[in-house]
Amino acid sequence: MKKRLKAVVGALLSLTMCSQAFALGAASYSSELISTRSLGEGGTGVAGTQNDPTSVYTNPAAMTILKGTQATIGLTYVNASPTFTNAATSGGFGASQYTAGQPGQVSGARATSVIVPSFAATTQFLDGKLAAGLAVVTPYGLETHFDGDSPIRYATTDARLRIIDITPSVAYKVNDVFSVGVGVDYWDTTEGDLEKKVNVNALNASLSGVGGPDANSALTGTGDGWGYHLGTTIRPSEHHQIGLVYHSSVKMNLTGTTQLTGLSGKSALVFGGSNFSTGVTAPLFMPQNVQLGYSYMPNDQWSFEADAAWYDWYSARQLGVVYSGVTATQSSILNNGNPQIFNPRKSLNFGLGANYKQSEKLQLRGGAYYQAAALPESAFDPAFVDLPRYALTIGASYAITKDLGVDAAYNAVFFHGRAINAPGAAASGSGYTGNFNSFANLLSASLSYRTGWHL
Q: For 65-93, how does the pLDDT look when each residue is reduced to its tens digit (9 = 90+)?
């Protein structure tokens, strides 16, 4: 498979920690934006009762419930506004170490807007005993923009990360109570970069030189990886269904470049001119996770679901970049703060949702979810704004014909602000202290087609 991968290295290695959504929930810029139907129902779907082809990814065992052949294609629009409010004076960490800014200065008001596509299709075999499907989904991704004169400009100004998962899955219906499924995941990082300013004043001072205007730094890279997921559904009675899913950890081996532009003075001498570029390699890890869902269906009109997920971030506890072809002095500068020590927390996320079948044509749904932050203050990275978040969701389905239907959903995502005191390093002048906050709107729509045909 040809690589179309442009991923982020260095500080962006931690960005996937923003994507802890269980089932198909959404949060900030990086989330499992898989299914419009799930987004409308509190990010739930692990139990497998939503009659949604994206179960190829969510819980492959649920494909045995999907009659005939079904397909869905969707788009999710994300609009988010992260902010940083400066809380220190210019002497907070010392003149050589602190990123200057006025107390109360707000940075990052520029909203981020992205559109995330998804696709899934399933079909049954042997009168429903076997099922297979293919999904192309975007479980991880982010885009943030902070002002070029922000107090955090030496940590990040622009960050982008987009990863798709191409996953074929199969399922087997053991009996009317129990089904199992398995899927293979090919993870492809399609776009990503981290851009920030370089504090030439602080850098040149560490080299016993005079200051200069800010320079620019950009990290890009490529990489892919393989994983798998396992799922099961248990339906002990017509009113209850349980789903359990395991997603494996994934390691992506990334390769790319780091570029410095606009260097001056002693730093330009060290790097052989005002512009510098060299190759980099780094691992990128995604966490293993276990997801549990329970659905209660008291009658033909109502269904309720509660989901929970446990994420294990141990594999991403320490991540580093290896620079190629650099001198000892260049290496000491580039490796300032490298590797990054994350020591992320294991996290639990929760979601609740309800669906009401108003008629054969119209269904209404709603819900809420909570997602915890994974990183402690010591490892906080403003490139992706890892904040605890709460969301309220609404959605609807409408059957245009017997075989064709549309879904729509809206999420209002509220973030719990975090006060971060990051001294940074004297050589980079990257220190800052202040409060991070955000709010996001998500709008999702999908078109679904189903037919009774199957093999």
A: 999 999 999 999 988 888 888 875 443 33
